[in-house]
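Hello, quick one for you while I still have it in my head. My current little project is about how a certain protein chain folds up. You're getting the sequence in one-letter code plus the fold written as tokens. Would you mind checking whether the tokens look sensible for this chain? Here's the protein in full, and shout if anything looks odd to you:
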Amino acid sequence: MSKWQNWPWPIAHWRLKEDLLRPFLKAMEEKNLIERIWQKDWTLWGHSPEEISHRLGWLEAPQTMLTFISEIEQFASSLRKSSFRQALLLGMGGSSLAAEVLNQIFPSNSEFLHLEILDSTVPEAISRKESRLSPDQTVYIVSSKSGTTTETLCLFHYFFSRARASLGQERAPSHFMAITDPSTPLASMAASLGFRKIWTGFPEVGGRFSALTSFGLVPAALKGINLQALLHSAQKMQLCCQNQKVEENPGALLTAFLAAIEAQGRDKMLIWIEPELLALGDWLEQLVAESTGKKKKGLLPVTGQEELLSLASLEDVAFIGLGTSKAFFNSFLQSLEKEPVPYLCLIFEPQQDIGALFFLWEWSVSLASSFWQINPFDQPDVEKTKIFTREILQELKDKGEFPPLSPASVNENDLTLYFSSVFNFNSLAEGLIDFLKSARKAGYLCLQAFLPPEGEIKLILDRMIKKLILRVRRPVTFGWGPRYLHSTGQFHKGGRDDGFFWQLVAEDEMDLIIPEGPDQERGWLTFSSLKEAQARADYQALTSLGKKIIQLRLGRDYLAALQRIEKIINSL
């Protein structure tokens, strides 16, 4: 066990044999990797100069954004003076996850706005979020780097229509702002409608690397977070990562750790994280999975708590501990003391150090990718599900019904189990048990839930995940649909080919119409149909790639269905 030197936080410990770490530290010195990343040398990652060299603006974000602090904070203050009390951010993936981290870490400030984030197309989730808002006191943040994100634009059309009905045509636009890159369709739409403000992103910064740009800072300011302190924290880490002495550079040490565990075949990165930092785990999950999960390589992040300890004896895992107290640190070390598994544990003060943590992981994941000759700034396999979604929606529009999902299925009461051709199940319960038993030989099990992400459903799924880890004895990842499509979806299709995938899809109890445009009242598509199309599309995409996947359709009484599934898991 070693304590990292020159580390900007009180406690940072790792355990990994020196002879495994040393080759990567030596390579960074001999190949001048630290100097080259700061010079934006695209050859670090391969042979795509245009695509890579135009995606490195995040390196200067802590300095660049300093010039915008005054404008952002003045705008936030003006909203409060204009009697706004709430802010609802509409966004997916990198356009919402950093804001969610900051929203969880920093408490609400009565002198500023209460921030809510919506990244679901499940009708019930949208309706519940809407019921907690008062339109006349709410500002809506439409956040999309590309300005074309389907879910975000659909949510925008819906809430703009609702605001127009409640506030009137004249007032509604003043309750909306956009965060998007220059000249996007969203930017043009926002300008033509007369949005209160359009915040411009940087095209040279990808979505998952945008935490320290307007996508993270504008929502933070509305909540009353000190942007100067946030960026100063990031600048301190930025300076540390410029140190050419690799053993005194925390970014270089983290890079070497990530590269070393991957070289050992320990490509499942188990992130034991304190509950109050769970949103940080979601952000880190997207950064690592979407950046590295390509060419059948990469690191798979798996977030959780103590239940992950049951996997410590596996030969393809390594641990990351993220906590806020010495008590967590001691518990982490004591729990893994008798296991030979490599680990890294970082203890930090969230409100003081989150900017540094954002930058550290962006820098280290990027540089580690150079050892695998992976471009960490693209997501080539995400488009496959988008293409299938468009095709399914077009057929729905033309024929009025969805295309058949799969000829392979079994039914039991209100439940239907679909499965790819690699399986052959005769009954639902036996099929589930056979699937989960087979998953014991897999690299990981991925549970995908197209369900409302809150309430009793969340509690049941949390229990299910913990039981699956204990009974399947493999890492279990989890994602809410369609949110995971913008996070770990790239890894599922482009990463290591050792996953088992289990979709849970429910029939919605209610539905909401998506207006065809911000100036429309009606439309042919509903949120339930959009969610359904995305679930079918990802099932089809994974099936087309030969992945081992099942889809369990829960019917309308999905709570009862989930309880039945729990009993089946308990029988393993």
